[in-house]
Amino acid sequence: TERRGVKAVDGNAFDLNAAVAKKPTVLIFYRGGWCPFCNQQMSGLQGIVKDVTDAGYQLLAISPDKPEELAKSIDKHTLTYTLLSDSDGSAIQAFGLAFKAASSQFALLEQYSGEKTHILPVPAVYILGTDGTIKFVHFDPDFKVRMDPAKIVEQAKAALPK
User: Fold this and answer.
1) Catalytic residues
2) Which residues of 2-24 are buried (b: 16+ CB within 10 A; e: fewer)?
3) Stated pTM of the model
4) Average pLDDT over residues 136-160
């Protein structure tokens, strides 16, 4: 299948590498706007946007949701950080977080992603330097376990060059 890559909420291609090269990045992978644990996490992340930005970072969150679904999540949670669509799972696979969803979730995932790949990411937090170096990573195979937003800020500050 053709890889279409990451898209912004407006449906245009988003160059993740170029974005990271411009500014240190807190990169979040989440399952989608249909997931109650993700919705709780997204609201929590909104609470640290200022701290993360003040520390010199940008906050990006990637899910398999198609751009239209991202727009709904942004409105629903009044989010000011960037949500990105990875419907074909290319970034999710590149970061080694992809797994095949349970068949009971196929219809839901097709509705949200617009794809039949049925790939979900293990929820994860990456802190990346502008050279692409991974300064910190956190993931838990239990999708109910998410990193505390305050700890994300702590790790982001700790990862800054001294």
Assistant:
1) 38
2) eeebbbbbeeeebebeebbeeeb
3) 0.95
4) 95
